[in-house]
Write a structure and sequence with these properties.
Layout: H1 2-58, H2 65-80, H3 84-105, H4 109-113, H5 115-150, H6 154-160
């Protein structure tokens, strides 16, 4: 009789441990999903600022149409991107296009002093910081999930319940690792 209670207790303890590991995997997966949503919110905010920036710059930079078109095209590719890898690649292109726009804008003193341009620069700089923090949170969440998926014994549960590793949101190009220059001095 005592042996039966010990056996039942051991089985219940094992079930509680398995349930805890499974719930840890679910929590980690949900944290990754939430972190991706935070990146998406900040990227949408960035995308919404770009048309205002382009409109402000357009009047001053009549001979720089190619630069403006690159920014517009890069923004659209970033909006249309799906998945972490494609999104990261599109963001790299958009960052380069914005850097090019700000570099060309340096040649226009009236533009550098325009209050609308200064306000957009400030807003874009703030958004870039928020994107950086959101990327860091996302990558930390992905690291946590991927570690749980690889560690024993949760790796057994992860494979049984089809938990998949996620991709980090990485910037591949060294030039894209530099912050977008948004201050005119």
């Amino acid at each position: 009789m005592v042996g039966l209670f010990v056996f039942i207790g051991a089985v219940l303890l094992l079930l509680l441990i398995v349930a805890g590991m499974y719930n840890g995997l679910v929590r980690a997966r949900q944290e990754v999903n939430n972190a991706w949503s935070q990146i998406d919110v900040q990227l949408r905010r960035r995308y919404d600022l770009i048309p205002n920036l382009v409109e402000t710059v357009k009047g001053y930079m009549k001979h720089e149409q190619e630069t403006l078109e690159k920014v517009i095209l890069a923004r659209q590719h970033a909006i249309d991107a799906t998945g972490v890898r494609q999104q990261a690649e599109a963001e790299n292109v958009l960052t380069r296009a914005l850097s090019g726009l700000f570099a060309v804008a340096e040649a226009y003193p009236d533009l550098k002093a325009n209050q609308n341009m200064l306000a957009l620069q400030e807003e874009l700089a703030s958004t870039e910081n928020k994107i950086a923090f959101a990327r860091q949170f996302y990558n930390d969440s992905v690291l946590n999930l991927n570690t749980k998926i690889e560690q024993f014994p949760t790796n057994i549960l992860a494979s049984m319940f089809n938990f998949k590793k996620r991709d980090m949101f990485e910037i591949d190009e060294p030039a894209a690792r530099e912050p977008v220059k948004v201050q005119f001095t």
